[in-house]
Amino acid sequence: MERILHALFAKHGPSDVSNRHYRKKRPEGEGRRTRSSAPLYCPFRISHSVILPKEFLLPEHNNNCRPCVDYLRISITDRCNQRCFYCMPHGDVPLFQHSEILTYEEILTVVTAAVKTGFRKFRLTGGEPLVRKNICELIRGIVAINGVEEVVLTTNGALLEKMAPALADAGLRRLNVSLDTLNPLKFRKITKSDNFYRVLRGIETARRVGLNPLKINMVVIGGVNDDEVEDFGRWAIKEALTVRFIEYMPIGCRHCWDAAKLVAVDAIRRRLERVATLQPLERRASDGPARRYRLGATEGEVGLIGAVSEHFCRFCNRLRLTPEGKLRPCLLSDEEIDVKIPLRAGCDERTLIDLIQTAVGAKAGHRAPDLRGEQRVRRSMSRIGG
């Protein structure tokens, strides 16, 4: 490792590799000092804000650099009021006991440390996050933390009609709704529930109380709902929505995924082009893996996420925190870093910051596997966080 670091910094002069700091005075125009509370992503662990050479500037300054890892997805429960087959395995599903999952106080402690590590955006997920009691209090707590710039949420929408006003009042500013079909019969087949019209009313309520821009997440599955891609495109145009089309991923039990049902984003793109001309939108640092397009001259927008056919590691700007307190550097890897055990042992904030930085550093070594083969992530999506 020391040999690699010496090679990285050879042209910038000597560095103290043993303590992993780089404090060389920068020449004019060669680098930029980070905010004191927000160290940039670096391919090795750092303990403080540092002056980085231009190779490690943010994407808007250096297009060859990985994005700043500043986005934490927090799964607050593995429970759900639906049973989508690609998220929860068939049969009896093992659920975490309440004592096993992080308390709201523990989540707020992690968020506070994450902000001091450079994180700015936080998303609450599940399971279904709205089934956990007092979620609005958690949202208020996160919003109140100095340095948090955005709190968002992903939901299946079944409880949104009732809860959207309270969510907006708590400080939530926007959300994503997972909806894989516009056919109520097909909806029941996919989700094992009769919540279709409740979800549509929830979407309307959320938009009315100002949770915009609202995004729809559609997992495209061959032979199940791939015939509706164009319908979702037309819906985006009609309602000025943003729809994210997501490839079907091999996550969870062995019998939950069939490679024959994978619909690649190239095929999705061709189907959308039958609806309107796809006008590429400029990539933003916050976009993550989505490739965004405007649908013709309308307000409708689509995003394509090709986790299987178009690996997006170099655009990934996030970590995930599972319900029971494991940091995952990569969705498609089973590597995890436990923060719950140190938290409950009374660790100080510096230890927690070090664990988060270790997880960020671990992203540098991840390259997405060939998911079209037999390799699968062992956890189900409901136990990782959507």
Write out key terms for the chains shown.
386 residues, alpha/beta, TIM Barrel, 2 domains, twelve-stranded mixed β-sheet, two-stranded antiparallel ribbon, 11 helices, 27% helix, 16% strand, globular
Structural features, described:
The chain is of the alpha/beta class and 386 residues long. It has two domains: 2-56, no CATH class; 71-316 and 369-384, Aldolase class I (TIM Barrel). Helices cover 27% and strands 16% of the residues. It is built from eleven helices and 14 strands. The strands form two sheets. It has a twelve-stranded mixed β-sheet. The chain has a two-stranded antiparallel ribbon with strand order 1-2. The chain is globular and about 55 Å long. It starts with a helix and ends with a helix.
Please summarize what this structure is.
The protein is built from eleven helices and 14 strands.
Shape: globular
What is the CATH fold-level name of the largest domain?
TIM Barrel
- Overall tally of structural domains: 2
Strand order in the largest sheet: 9-10-11-8-7-6-5-4-3-12-13-14
Number of helices: 11
CATH homologous superfamily (4th level) name of the largest domain: Aldolase class I
Q: Nearest-angstrom radius of gyration? A: 21 Å
Helix content: 25-40%
